[in-house]
Design brief:
The protein is an alpha+beta fold. Helix content is about 15%, strand content about 40%.
Length: about 180
């Protein structure tokens, strides 16, 4: 079999599909406020897409209105085989900034994570977008009496922040439950 041919191995009656031909979910970065347009264009091109939308009440000076907004601003998802013609079609779609991943190559999003999002949305579970934080990451508190304090996130369950005085190798743990914080 030559290097350019697709590899299909038969295991009994089941054909194994090469890893590069398996359709997987990928996060797509979009231009600002282009999420809905990109998702619609992908569907028009017969590329499966998923744009998680949430209903939010927006207030203007004269009225309030319930609108559907992307759960993750600047992102939508597409399901495709990464090394198929669909990849180029996605990249050529108006409003697409690229695939999320190292050098824009794209990193698969596990099917279970997409299904979890679909389940939460279908059941209208209240949620809001939060910054992605990891234990051990440096963060800064925003607002309140502790505004501007920086430290290392020690835990997310009880939301403790460790403030260190590095030259003397001493640290304090502060409960930041109720405070907003952001990654540094």
């Amino acid at each position: 079999m030559s290097g350019g041919q697709a590899l299909h191995m038969s295991l009994g009656h089941v054909d194994a599909v090469p890893l590069l031909e398996i359709r997987q979910w990928y996060a797509i970065r979009t231009r600002s406020r282009h999420e809905k347009m990109v998702a619609e264009q992908l569907q028009t091109q017969s590329i499966e897409s998923f744009l998680p939308l949430v209903k939010r009440t927006r207030k203007w000076s004269d009225r309030k209105k319930e609108v559907e907004l992307p759960l993750f601003s600047g992102y939508t998802f597409a399901r495709l085989a990464l090394h198929s013609p669909d990849r180029l079609r996605v990249l050529r779609t108006h409003g697409v900034a690229g695939f999320v991943g190292v050098r824009g190559l794209g990193i698969p999003v596990p099917e279970g994570q997409i299904e979890s999002l679909r389940t939460l949305l279908a059941n209208q579970i209240p949620m809001k977008d939060r910054p992605f934080l990891q234990i051990g990451q440096r963060v800064r508190i925003r607002g309140g009496a502790l505004d501007g304090i920086e430290g290392i996130l020690a835990a997310q369950d009880d939301r403790n922040l460790v403030i260190s005085v590095e030259p003397i190798h001493r640290s304090l743990s502060v409960c930041i439950d109720g405070y907003c914080f952001e990654p540094i």
